[in-house]
Amino acid sequence: MKKLVSGILIGIMIMGFSQSVFASSSILIEVYQSIKRIVVNTDDLNLPSDTPAFIYNGSTYVPLRSLAEYLGYTVSWDASKQTVKIYQDCGSEDINNIRKLCIRGTEVQLPNDVIVDGILVNSDFGYISNYLPAIILKRNHSSVAINTSMGLVINRVIQKGEEDSFDFLDPYIIGDLVENKKISPKKP
């Protein structure tokens, strides 16, 4: 009888131990909450008091939702895929009403007669695919596609007499795949 009771107790202990080992994927870490302010450009990012920023192993951790929403993004959680999704929700805003672009980190005001005509996200031309997505700007009957983060012109269709339609971009563009040349940006 003693062997049976001992066997049951050992079995329960092994089962309990293995469940606690295999069920837990969390670890306890020591963090430093010495961050007093977070400044984005020149504005303070106000974090909820229940989700403070902290430093761990030399890296700064900021609540993703707070930062993303501050920057104008929408955050959602897909429980079935265990995935956080961050995206810009354009809502019903017409893309043609965009008046400013950010090219290589600099805000660029679009002239009144230039419209954002679309976003190029896929191309049949293999070499262009490496430089997508690109913003398509249209002025009169001419258009240009630029990768705004890299400052590259990746395509252009310029009508006769409209050759200077996109000269306002020159200070911000560092390369032109159409003409296969590197450009030194001019001062704005």
Automatic annotation (TrEMBL):
<feature type="domain" description="Copper amine oxidase-like N-terminal">
    <location>
        <begin position="36"/>
        <end position="86"/>
    </location>
</feature>
<dbReference type="Pfam" id="PF07833">
    <property type="entry name" value="Cu_amine_oxidN1"/>
</dbReference>
<dbReference type="InterPro" id="IPR036582">
    <property type="entry name" value="Mao_N_sf"/>
</dbReference>
<protein>
    <submittedName>
        <fullName>Copper amine oxidase N-terminal domain-containing protein</fullName>
    </submittedName>
</protein>
<dbReference type="InterPro" id="IPR012854">
    <property type="entry name" value="Cu_amine_oxidase-like_N"/>
</dbReference>
